[in-house]
Amino acid sequence: MADGDKVAGRTFAPSAEMTAGAHVDKARYDEMYAASVNDPEAFWAEEGKRLDWIEPYTKVKNTSFEFGNVSIKWYEDGTLNVAANCIDRHLETRADQTAIIFEPDEPDGEVQHISYRELHEKVCRFANVLLSQGIMRGDRVIIYLPMIPEAAYAMLACARIGAIHSVVFAGFSPDALANRINDCGAKAVITADTAPRGGKRTALKSNTDAALLHCSDKVRCLVVKHTGDQTTWIDGRDVDVKAMMETVAPDCPARPMNAEDPLFILYTSGSTGKPKGVVHSSGGYLVYAAMTQQYTFDYHDGDVFWCGADVGWVTGHTYILYGPLANGATTLMFEGVPTYPDASRFWQIIEKHKVTQFYTAPTAIRALMGQGTDFPARCDLSSLKVLGTVGEPINPEAWAWYDKNIGKGQLPIVDTWWQTETGGHMITPLPGATPTKPGSATLPFFGVQPVVLEAESGKVVEGNPAEGVLAIADSWPGQMRTVWGDHERFESTYFQQYKGYYFSGDGCRRDEDGYYWITGRVDDVINVSGHRMGTAEVESALVAHSKVAEAAVVGYPHEVKGQGIYAYVTLMNGVEPSDELRRELEGWVRTEIGPIAKPDLIQWAPGLPKTRSGKIMRRILRKIAENDYGSLGDTSTLADPSVVDDLVDNRMNRG
Ligand code: WTA
């Protein structure tokens, strides 16, 4: 029997030891959850006190999910500074405690232990560099950096002066970077010379130079000389951040900001069009980030918290930076990848820094699982107390491997469901409170009211078990506030289809015990190695190639990545398909979007299945990609049903 089969369907209760020391046990969860939904106003008024407010709030919740009138405000008359909450207020008691442990790409590289005192000085100096470049409250700043301490300094420096940061994952291409700079009208880009990752280097500065060719020439370019690699330098535009940090003052006042002032914009993929700028607030977001980091991971003083995500994603924002630092935690930042120099790297880091909570994605677990059990077996993992996952449902086989080889059958695994849009965990076990079932994100976090809706009618499915789409009935403080520059798109994406609810875009099932099981996206978003990708984005990159007439992209099950990218491509008249062209198109998508968007399989499609009105029937394409011909459904409404036979006959062999 496979290990996965042994754990599937079972329930794993928290150990007595875990429960005894935990912030929240089962009784406390029930009590707090009831309070949070029965009287959100009182509950969140109390939770807001986690932060230091300059001007305390008198109003707590002012939210409407009414389509046409959607407005989300929390703590709206309070003022605070996010950086001061993450740094300054800890100085009295923890100035010498490590705030950030930096583990470099090379295992023998220089580890840094950055204390709260040092963090304060670095962030102040960085903030003064920004001010010297004319960056002011409300200005947008793009951060395109590797996973280095300067990424944290840059984000917190923006927060300190009230500038709005937008971090762009360092794996994105110049075009993707340029689109984001232009969409938010950024005044500056902060980048580095090159980014070492897994022993290779990405030329971030030259990518930025390429991107800036498509942007206003007023955009400043702030460069962190990280590796010292040679780059071109444009005098008058480029600024050497590290050199300048030495010359500016070591202190910089934290600017009072309104709770509803945007803290950051983060671009994420949707089912249509270009990525949208998800806007998060200062006050509500930070309350929610701090609270979820503490409870979901049962974080205690003295713990060493490691979220293995990249700061380019929301997981990195909330659980490398803002949540842990708001709580005065020690948080680990890793520059590299799990498999460099070999597949023991994660486990060696846990041993080396005595990590207590470890948070990663199922795709990373599956990749490491493929390398065998020797790698973790060689390392001392006894410091660990809680394991977490995020990004997609964890399959029983990966759960069993994680549990057995990393948790030694002893540790709670928190499977956290949430989204860029939600700011923090929404459905998740709490380690001392919630019995877990492998594959289920279990129960809602405080203040979160999930509902299961019938996909077609939008009717609420009452009782258990239930199946449908997942929506949320009321607001929580970490919720996104709008789409940058396009509030209408915010409303139409999340509030139009099911009136009165926030629609997640995910399908789900609720079992007899009220546990939630996320079944994946119900829209045209796919989840590749835990990265969210709009199929429309990949399609528009493909059709931008001169030899491509049309393209349709769908996801298909992939053993390691969760989903792979399957592209059906119709070539221009007269263009011959070839393996060379296939490679050319792969390379093309890499440069248009980035390596993460490269199609795994490209099938030449002389025609695509379309309705008579010209709409591509993705349902059919998905089935073919999944190898599921039995259920192609009714193809008689197609303009030309014979194209389906051709596609089935020539389906790519996944090998
Ligand atoms: C998926 C990442 C199942 C889901 C924080 C969601 C999950 C999308 C889980 C958001 C989970 C995330 N179980 N599915 N524990 N966590 N997802 O915006 O489809 O990058 O809608 O945020 O990832 O991805 P995003």
What can you see in these coordinates?
- The chain is an alpha/beta fold.
- 31% of the residues lie in helices and 22% in strands.
- The chain has two domains: 3-447 and 454-509, Rossmann fold; 529-650, GMP Synthetase, Chain A, domain 3 (2-Layer Sandwich), CATH 3.30.300.30.
- Helix 15 crosses helix 17.
- It is globular, with a radius of gyration of 24 Å.
- 54% of the residues are buried.
- It has a seven-stranded mixed beta sheet with strand order 5-4-17-16-18-19-20, sandwiched between helices.
- The chain is built from 22 helices and 30 strands.
- The longest helix has 17 residues, at 116-132.
- Residues 268, 313-315, 390-393, 415-420, 441, 504-506, 518, 521, 527, 532 line the site of 5'-O-[(S)-ethoxy(hydroxy)phosphoryl]adenosine.
Overall residue-averaged pLDDT value: 95
What proportion strand?
15-25%
What are the distinct ligands in this entry? 5'-O-[(S)-ethoxy(hydroxy)phosphoryl]adenosine
Which fold name is given in CATH as the topology of the largest domain? Rossmann fold
EC number: 6.2.1.1
Protein name: Acetyl-coenzyme A synthetase
GO molecular function: acetate-CoA ligase activity; AMP binding; ATP binding; metal ion binding
Binding site for Mg(2+): 543, 545, 548
Give the helices and strands, then pairings:
Blueprint: H1 3-7, H2 16-21, H3 26-38, H4 40-47, E1 61-64, E2 71-74, E3 79-80, H5 82-86, H6 91-94, E4 98-103, E5 112-115, H7 116-132, E6 140-144, H8 149-161, E7 164-167, H9 174-184, E8 188-192, E9 195-197, E10 200-202, H10 204-212, E11 220-224, E12 238-240, H11 241-247, E13 257-258, E14 262-268, E15 276-281, H12 283-296, E16 304-307, H13 314-326, E17 330-334, H14 345-353, E18 357-360, H15 362-369, H16 374-377, E19 386-390, H17 396-406, E20 413-416, E21 450-453, E22 466-472, E23 482-483, H18 487-494, E24 502-510, E25 516-521, E26 525-528, E27 531-534, H19 535-543, E28 548-558, E29 562-571, H20 579-592, E30 601-604, H21 618-625, H22 642-649
Parallel strand pairs: 4-17, 6-7, 6-8, 8-11, 11-12, 16-17, 16-18, 18-19, 19-20, 29-30
Antiparallel strand pairs: 1-2, 3-13, 4-5, 9-10, 14-15, 15-23, 21-22, 22-24, 24-25, 26-27, 28-29
This protein binds 5'-O-[(S)-ethoxy(hydroxy)phosphoryl]adenosine.
